[in-house]
C-alpha cells in the first residue's frame, strides 16, 4: 500500500532514490555514463529548468520542491534508460510490462470477488483502479498493455487468456474516455489488418466475464455510465468548467502557480460548481498552471514532436499516442510512471547507438551522490507524512504545507495554532484552514473585528461556499453587538448595514458565478435560514438605533 497512487510524493521520492542508486551502480560497474543529446533529453532538461524557475514565482514554494524532484526524476530516468536500452531490453520490458498489468488485473478481479486484502486499494467507487489507484489512468495503461501484447509472440491459447484478463480489466475500469479511444484505435488496427483471432476471442471472453462480474456484484447501475458518452454528461461538463476557470487563473498568473498552487487557489476562481480537485484534469492545462505559459507551450511542442514528427516503431507510437491523448482530458501525466512509459516506448535504437557525451568516474560519482542525499532526506519526510506523523514532517521540512494543514487540525495548543496558522497564510494566502482557526480563536477571545476580517477573507477566497457567508454574517452580528455595548455605535451600525447588504451581494454573485452547465455540486447562493435570522436581527438592531 506504500506505493498506492503512484503520483503521491512518497512514491515520487522513492523512485528518485532508486533511479539515482541504479545510475551510481551503472557508473561504478561500467566506468562511464553516456548523456543523450536528442530532442527528448532537451525537452526533459528544459522541463527541469522550468520547474526550478517556477520555484521563484510559485504560489507555494514549499511544495514546488516536489515539482523540481519530478523534473529531476524524468532526467535521471531517461539517462538510465539510455544506458540500457536495446532490442533485448525492449523485448524483456514489454513482457514484464504486460505481465505486471495482467497480474494487476487479476488482483482487481479478485477484489471484486471479495478478497479484502486488496479490495480497498484496487477498487475505488466500484471501478477497477488497479495499483495506480485511479481508474481512468489505469485504463490507459491497460489498453497500452493490450497494444503491446499484440506484438508479443506466444501460443494462441496463452494470448486468448491474456486478452481476456486485459479486456475484462479495461471494461471494469468503466473509463469512457479510454474505451472511446480504444474503439478508434481498434478500428484503425482492423483496417491495417493488425488484429488476430486470439484478440477477438479474448475480447469476446472479456465481455462475458465482465457481464458475469457485474451481475454477481450488482453493478449494473454503475456500468451504465459507459452508455453515457454524450457531451452533456455531468462529469464532462464539470471538466469544461474546470478548464474555463483554469484559463482565467492562467491569465492572472502567466508564470504559473507552482506545484499544488492550483489546488490551493482554485476556489477563489471557481464558477458553477463547488469542486475542489488537486489537478485540473488536463495534463496540458496543468503544465500551464504549474510552470506557466512557457511550460505549457513546451509540453505542447513535445507532444506534437513525439506523436507526429519523431519516427519510431508504429505500435510503440500508438502506445505513446494513447497515453498523451488521454492526458489532454485527465491527470495522466501527473503519474511519473506514465512519463517513464512514454520515454521507454518512444526511445529508438538509432538514438541509443549514438555516442553523444560520456561522463567518466570521479566527479560524476560525487555529483550523483550529492543528488542522492536530498532525495533520501525528502523520502524520509514523505514517509513521515504518509504515516500521519505531521509534527515530525514539519520538524524535518517546514515548507511542507500539506503536513502543516493536517497538523493544524490535530493541534490543541492555542498559541501553537495561532503561530502555525499565521505562518501558513503568510506564505500562502489561500490556506482556508488557517483563516478558520484564526477566526475561531478571535471569537473565543472576544476580538470580533478580527473575526470579521478573517471571515471576509474566507468569503473572498471561497465565495461559492454559502457557509462562508453565514460565518461572515454571524461575525458581523457579534461585532455589531459588541461595538454597540461598548459605546461605539457608528462602528456597530456599519457592521449591521454590512449584514443587510448580503442578500444583494448573493444575487450578484449568483449571476456572476452560476453557469448553464449540467453539473453536480451546484452552489447554493441564496439566503439560508441562518442568513435570514442574522438579517432580521440586524434590521431590529438598526431600527432600535434609529
Give a concise summary.
With 546 residues, the protein is mostly helical. It has 26 helices and four strands. Strands 1-4 form a two-stranded antiparallel sheet. The protein has a two-stranded antiparallel ribbon with strand order 2-3.
Structural account:
The chain is mostly helical. It has 26 helices and four strands. The protein has helices at 9-30, 39-57, 61-84, 87-112, 116-122, 135-149, 156-173, 176-191, 197-216, 220-223, 234-252, 261-265, 283-309, 314-327, 336-346, 349-353, 363-386, 390-396, 401-410, 414-427, 432-444, 448-461, 466-485, 489-500, 502-513, 529-545, and strands spanning 32-35, 123-124, 127-128, 357-360. The strands form two sheets. The chain has a two-stranded antiparallel ribbon with strand order 1-4. The longest helix is centred in the middle third of the chain and has 27 residues, at 283-309. It is globular and about 90 Å long.
Give the H and E element order.
HEHHHHEEHHHHHHHHHHHEHHHHHHHHHH
**Structural class of the secondary structure composition?**
mainly alpha
Terminal CA distance: 66 Å
Instruction: Determine the mean pLDDT.
Output: 87
Strand order of the largest sheet: 1-4
Chain oligomer state: single chain
Count of discrete alpha- or pi-helical segments spanning 4 or more residues = 26
- Please indicate the percent range of residues in DSSP E strands (runs of 2 or more): under 5%
Sketch the major β-sheet. 2 strands, antiparallel
Overall strand count: 4
Low-confidence stretches: none
Gross morphology is: globular
Name the helicity range.
over 70%
Amino acid at each position: 500500500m506504500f506505493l498506492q497512487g503512484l503520483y503521491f510524493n512518497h512514491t515520487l521520492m522513492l523512485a528518485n532514490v532508486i533511479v539515482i542508486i541504479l545510475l551510481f551502480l551503472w557508473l561504478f560497474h561500467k566506468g562511464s555514463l553516456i548523456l543523450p543529446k536528442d530532442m527528448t533529453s532537451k525537452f526533459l532538461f528544459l522541463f527541469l529548468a522550468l520547474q526550478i524557475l517556477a520555484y521563484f514565482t510559485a504560489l507555494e514554494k514549499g511544495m514546488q520542491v516536489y515539482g523540481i524532484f519530478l523534473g529531476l526524476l524524468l532526467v535521471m530516468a531517461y539517462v538510465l534508460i539510455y544506458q540500457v536500452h536495446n532490442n533485448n531490453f525492449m523485448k524483456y520490458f514489454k513482457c514484464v510490462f504486460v505481465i505486471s498489468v495482467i497480474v494487476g488485473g487479476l488482483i482487481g478481479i479478485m477484489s471484486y470477488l471479495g478478497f479484502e486484502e486488496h479490495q480497498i486499494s484496487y477498487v475505488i467507487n466500484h471501478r477497477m483502479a488497479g495499483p495506480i489507484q485511479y481508474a481512468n489512468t489505469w485504463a490507459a495503461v491497460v489498453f497500452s498493455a493490450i497494444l503491446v501484447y499484440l506484438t508479443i509472440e506466444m501460443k494462441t491459447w496463452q494470448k486468448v487468456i491474456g486478452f481476456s484478463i486485459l479486456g475484462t480489466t479495461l471494461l471494469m475500469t468503466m473509463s469512457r474516455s479510454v474505451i472511446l479511444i480504444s474503439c478508434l484505435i481498434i478500428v484503425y488496427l482492423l483496417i491495417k489488418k493488425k488484429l488476430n483471432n486470439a484478440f477477438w476471442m479474448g475480447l469476446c471472453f472479456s465481455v462475458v466475464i465482465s457481464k458475469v462480474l457485474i451481475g454477481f456484484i450488482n453493478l449494473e447501475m454503475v456500468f451504465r455510465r459507459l452508455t453515457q458518452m454524450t457531451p452533456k454528461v455531468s462529469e464532462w461538463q464539470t471538466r469544461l468548467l474546470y478548464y474555463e476557470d483554469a484559463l482565467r487563473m492562467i491569465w492572472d498568473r502567466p508564470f504559473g502557480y507552482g506545484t499544488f498552487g492550483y489546488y490551493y487557489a482554485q476556489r477563489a476562481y471557481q464558477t458553477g460548481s463547488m469542486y475542489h480537485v488537486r489537478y485540473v484534469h488536463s495534463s496540458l492545462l496543468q503544465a500551464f498552471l504549474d510552470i506557466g505559459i512557457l511550460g505549457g507551450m513546451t509540453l505542447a511542442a513535445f507532444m506534437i514532436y513525439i506523436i507526429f514528427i519523431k519516427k519510431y516503431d508504429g505500435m510503440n507510437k500508438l502506445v505513446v499516442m494513447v497515453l498523451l491523448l488521454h492526458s489532454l482530458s485527465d491527470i495522466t501525466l501527473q503519474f511519473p510512471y506514465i512519463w517513464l512509459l512514454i520515454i521507454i516506448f518512444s526511445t529508438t535504437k538509432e538514438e541509443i547507438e549514438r555516442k553523444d557525451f560520456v561522463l567518466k568516474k570521479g566527479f560524476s560519482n560525487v555529483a550523483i551522490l550529492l543528488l542522492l542525499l536530498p532525495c533520501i532526506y525528502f523520502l524520509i519526510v514523505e514517509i513521515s507524512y504518509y504515516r500521519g506523523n505531521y509534527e515530525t514532517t514539519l520538524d524535518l521540512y517546514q515548507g511542507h504545507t500539506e503536513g502543516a494543514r493536517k497538523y493544524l487540525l490535530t493541534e490543541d495548543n492555542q498559541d501553537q495554532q495561532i503561530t502555525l496558522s499565521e505562518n501558513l497564510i503568510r506564505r500562502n494566502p489561500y490556506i482556508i484552514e488557517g483563516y478558520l482557526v484564526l477566526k475561531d480563536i478571535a471569537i473565543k477571545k472576544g476580538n470580533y473585528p478580527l473575526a470579521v476580517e478573517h471571515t471576509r477573507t474566507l468569503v473572498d477566497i471561497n465565495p461559492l461556499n454559502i457557509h462562508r457567508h453565514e460565518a461572515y454574517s454571524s461575525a458581523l452580528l457579534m461585532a455589531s453587538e459588541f461595538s454597540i455595548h461598548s459605546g461605539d455605535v457608528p462602528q456597530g451600525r456599519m457592521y449591521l448595514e454590512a449584514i443587510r447588504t448580503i442578500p444583494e451581494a448573493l444575487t450578484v454573485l449568483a449571476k456572476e458565478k452560476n453557469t448553464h452547465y449540467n453539473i453536480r455540486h451546484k452552489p447554493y447562493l441564496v439566503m439560508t435560514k441562518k442568513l435570514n435570522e442574522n438579517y432580521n436581527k440586524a434590521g431590529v438592531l438598526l431600527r432600535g438605533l434609529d
